[in-house]
Amino acid sequence: MAGTNRRAPARGKRTAPRGTATSSRSSAPKRRFFDYPRSGFHGLHRWLPSWRFMLGTVLAVGFLGAGAMVGAYAYTSIPDPADDTRAETTTVYYANNPDGSPGAVMGTFAAQKRQIIDYATLPEYVGQSVAAAEDKTFFTNNSGISITGMGRALLNNLRGGATQGGSTLTQQYVERYYVDKTTTDYVGKFKETLLAIKIARVESKSEIMERYLNTIYFGRDSYGIQAAAQAYFGVDAAALTREQAALLAGIIPSPNNWDPAKSPEKAEARWNIVLDSMEEEGWLTAAERAPMVMPTTIVYQRAETMGGTNGYLLEMVRDELKLDPLAFTDDEIYRLGLKVVTTIQQPLQAAAEDKAKQFMAGTLPGMDGGIPNPRTRVSLSSVDPKDGAIVALYGGPDFLADQKNTVTFDNVQPGSTFKPFTLIAGLEQGVGLNTRFSGRTPQEFGDWKVGNFSNGQFGNIDLVEATAQSVNTVYAQLNLQVGPEKTAEVAERAGLPAPVDTNRANVLGTQTLKPIDMVGAYATIASGGVRVDPYIVRTVINSDDSVAFEHKDPTERAFAPDVIADATYAMTQVVEKGSGKQWIKPLDRPIAGKTGTTQDNKAAWFVGFTPNVVTEVSLSQVGEDGISQESIEQIGKVKFVTGATWPAFLWQSYMTDVFAQPQYATVVDFPPRANVGAKPSATPTEAPTETAAPTEPTEQAPTEVAVPSGLEGKLEADATATVVNAGLAANVLSEPSDSVTAGRVIRVDPKSGTMLASGSPVTLVISTGPKAQPTQEPPPQPTPTETAAAP
Length: 791
Hints:
Helices cover 34% and strands 13% of the residues. It has 791 residues and is an alpha+beta fold. Strands 2-1-6-13-14 form a 5-stranded mixed sheet. The protein has a 5-stranded antiparallel sheet with strand order 8-7-17-16-15, sandwiched between helices.
């Protein structure tokens, strides 16, 4: 239409539909939930977070961290102390001295050498010294940690410096007392930090310091302040001086390296640092500090507790502690801090060790240079017959070199030391000491042929002489009469472990036995018939000083007193007139005993006793394999080692020292001979029966009769008849004589005309003819009548 001024739409453009609003925002990009890198910014700004984001992140992490700390602290519980921190050393002592004072320390059993003590018993400066060395803020820091210290240590560690802990004394205490290991990782340190904070709130400073002092290692194998005071200065911790306490505190960080004996300069430098810190803290005045000098420590020698001869004793103690009624475990023995008082008397133990070692070296006076084969085994032990206490025991020269105790481990044949059990069996059956048997040799009992040592010939002799001269053929007959099973039963009642052999040759000591069992069985005889079992632990005291155990004296009677009195009398004649005469009789006191030698001289014994001490000595020799037994080789001039030679010699040498001790110096007599006769004596389990009335009236025997005259030179049978007809008992002994014909009386004891009670014994000494020429001249010389075990 003309006049119309309408503009046509521009090419390429679109108009918005009607009703649609237009805006500049419609062209902006959509915002993201996590706007990073940041939109709307260019270059570096796109990569920098906003301040709002930074603040929010810090606050969130802080709140989360605080919550985590609160939660971790709340869930941190105080654990039980580490096992080793509670372990205390068990100390073993010799028997108390005669005056009642405690015996010396024999040795210890320790997982760690430690003795726990109360902090209240220590001088105040001991704890102050440790605080001055390790943490001067200890007594004022109630948090238990040091933020600055830990931060400084962390920074140093991150820089690659020498590792530092930054720990307070409380943190060290936590690590040693509760964790019991060195913590190096940061997670572990964090846990320890929380635990230190909690412990600082629930434990007092005194409790923490006490446990710390009882726990830490001071060097010289010593844990805790008490053990350290003993190791460095030989005093109790309560007696430490300021100077000594400062030295111990100073070396805590590195005790093995800073021990004054190893590094005196470093030890003194640390000592000065501790004292200077104490002065700064007001725990020490300048006037007190000025005169102080570095304290002198004692020489420390690492104790090889189980070394030497003591190792055998300590092993016996440990074994006995594990038996009923104590029944301690090894762990308890090593950790409970027990005080164990043994029965070993130190002077007797020293004598036993000295004599045995001299014997093996050939230096014992009287040996004239004779040296035993190095494979010779020596056992020597002494027992108190009152209760079985082992008062001395030599089990070998060095436990660490050979752990087989000769007294408790070795099994050797006892030889003729077994004969007293058959004698007791006979006496219990009414076979009295006057009972006579043929002593000729050899004799055959069915298929059993028995001979005497060195083919010694004896006439018709009684049991006293058969015991004194150890006549095999007589004891073989006695054993067959009473029964080998009865001999075995008597041996078991005396204390030998069951079962004892019941073969007919058991009387000759054919069964191998341990020396400790033989000395115990002889102790039963020496006690008068009360069963005695050897033991070594007398008292056990707990760490709190309460008594855990105390040995009770035995009360079980094994044999009737009259039986033991007669057996003991016969055994005294071994010393007075028999195979033990040469070496034992010169000790000049009542001693009973028995020699013993096995076939082929593979073992030789002397077991002897007085009423208050029993001692066994045995020798044997092992083969090169260390197991088999072989004949004991010649020692000095003694070609054949028998019980009457070196064992008797060593016994008397040792017992000379024993009898010099005050408790054994007094001579004690045995009970008198009881003359058990035709009627069996009552056993411990039987009540004595009344004596039966004679079937025919008899005249009253005179109360005293005189020993007949004219007995010297008579034949044995005639002299015996004369004595018996006079109302006395004939006791016949034999010995060689160059002037009196064999079979005739040499002398009479007591002499003719002596008034004796009716039935008293009269000894007739019968000649065996001229003395045989010896084939060897040993010091000591073996007795020709010594017995050997049956084949």
